[in-house]
Amino acid sequence: MKPIQKDPNESDFYMQLAKQLAKPSGAEGIQIGLDMNTSNKSLFENTLVELNPESEQYILEIGPGNGKHVASMLLNKKHIHYVGLDISETMVQEAQKNLEQYSYISKALFRHYNGETIPCDNNFFDSIFTINTIYFWKKPKEFLDELARVLKPNGKLLLCFGLKEYLEKMPFTEYGFTLYSQTDLENLVAQSQFKIKHFKVLQDSITQRDGNTYTREYAIVELGKK
């Protein structure tokens, strides 16, 4: 696949960018993964604070990208059994390479999956987290129920995502993104096997590919099983 070279003001550019954000592939996908390491740094750091994993826990991440952000968690919380599932084979390959040097301190595993069915037993994970993937879930209610299936009864699910009011301003989100306000997320969760335990809204500044700097509003939502 050829790297994106179109003018950022053209709709073709943003359509291709949205496609890569949803499922990075090839050389451009590898660069997108690196860009996300920078742009999502504060999201991961704040989600990790809420996650607060303990030794010997089984942790699942949906959509880990190239996995570089996982290193800090493995270094600070040793002996975690971590699994990262991604729909992008390119990202799984990159994550496996990036985390090889940390294999001696933690059991980390990256796998490709179909984005709908989680290849794990019932009640397997102590905690699950995902950052900026909810926009791309094809069947959100069904996928939440699938996450509930593999989560232990007293486990927690953390959803981190940009809020609708912020993302509506981005020129690429009209292509294949489903955006969520707090009310939208509450309505979705009410249909699932989860309940909202905590809804936190945070802000930071981010410069997007259009060259503009925005105040980004994002949520970290803790869910527990009903």
Task: Describe what you observe in this structure.
The protein is an alpha/beta fold and 226 residues long. It has one domain: Vaccinia Virus protein VP39 (Rossmann fold, 3-Layer(aba) Sandwich). Helices cover 35% and strands 28% of the residues. It contains 8 helices and 7 strands, in the order H-H-H-E-H-E-H-E-E-H-E-H-H-E-E. A 7-stranded mixed beta sheet has the order 3-2-1-4-5-7-6, with helices on both faces. It starts with 10 loop residues before the first helix and ends with a strand. The relative contact order is 0.14. The N terminus is likely disordered.
Keywords:
about 230 residues, alpha/beta, Rossmann fold, seven-stranded mixed β-sheet, 8 helices, about 35% helix, about 30% strand, globular, disordered N terminus
What is the number of beta strands? 7
Evaluate the radius of gyration.
17 Å
Task: Report the sheet with the most strands, covering strand number, pairing sense and barrel closure.
Answer: 7 strands, mixed
Helix and strand content put the structural class at alpha/beta
CATH topology: Rossmann fold
Could you list the spans in which at least 5 consecutive residues all have pLDDT below 50? 1-6
Run of helices and strands: HHHEHEHEEHEHHEE
Q: What general form does the structure show? A: globular
Question: Termini distance?
Answer: 44 Å
- How much helicity do the residues have? 25-40%
